[in-house]
Design goal:
- The protein is an alpha+beta fold.
- It has 7 helices and 5 strands; from the N terminus they run E-E-E-H-H-H-E-H-H-H-E-H.
- 26% of the residues lie in helices and 13% in strands.
- A hairpin with a 2-residue loop joins strand 1 and strand 2.
- It is globular and about 50 Å long.
- It starts with a strand and ends with a helix.
Length: 203
């Protein structure tokens, strides 16, 4: 969609999705946000087509809500919990509610740099809307499913607090929120997975 910006130039707005920003954007106003993109040679595109049963999923941590769950989080903190952005509940440690909600989205390019073109990564799932429940299956070939060990990472305090405030069961929590996992990397078990984990541990 082309948007007129000035008589002599044009801004091209490529719209892939839109978010529901309940009570965040005033009626008659619009909020413009930025995205980043990268050009990838066709032979290096990671499609998930090579994933087979027995492969390993490696979770990369998130640093907050990232791109999903804000309407739910605002409702639970401000309407259900009665907090303000300045509140500093004990569960969040030193952070205020506002600071926890506004934690910047983490870029995973630095962590994946040096791995993307090695052929060791079979699949990548960005954990946004739909959480682990909906995003990982999108990269799996027909006939494949995945199993998650919920004890393999520590859910950050922000998400534990939201689950408590909203009385969310696991199904709802892991679909509405990223629960501390920002990206999932799929690789063959054994040497490839070990090499990826060693690379990530070295950062």
């Amino acid at each position: 969609q082309r948007v007129d910006h000035h008589a002599d130039d044009v801004v091209v707005a490529v719209i892939g999705e839109h978010g529901d920003q309940y009570r965040l954007v005033l009626v008659g106003r619009a909020r413009v946000v930025a995205c980043h993109r990268r050009v990838v040679d066709r032979q290096h595109v990671i499609t998930g087509a090579g994933i087979v049963p027995g492969d390993v999923a490696i979770a990369l941590p998130s640093v907050g809500l990232h791109t999903n769950g804000y309407s739910l989080a605002r409702k639970l903190f401000f309407e259900v919990g009665g907090f303000t952005p300045e509140s500093r509940p004990e569960q969040l440690g030193c952070a205020s509610v506002g600071e926890a909600l506004l934690a910047p989205h983490k870029s995973y390019l630095p962590a994946l740099d040096g791995l993307l073109e090695t052929g060791q990564i079979k699949g990548l799932a960005h954990i946004t809307g739909g959480g682990l429940v909906d995003n990982v299956p999108r990269i799996l070939p027909d006939g494949c499913s995945f199993e998650v060990d919920l004890d393999s990472w520590t859910v950050p305090p922000l998400f534990r607090m939201l689950v408590e405030l909203g009385h969310l069961d696991d199904s709802e929590a892991y679909r509405a929120l990223n629960m501390g996992v920002g990206m999932v990397v799929v690789a063959s078990d054994g040497t490839p997975a070990a090499a990826i984990e060693a690379h990530l541990d070295s950062l």
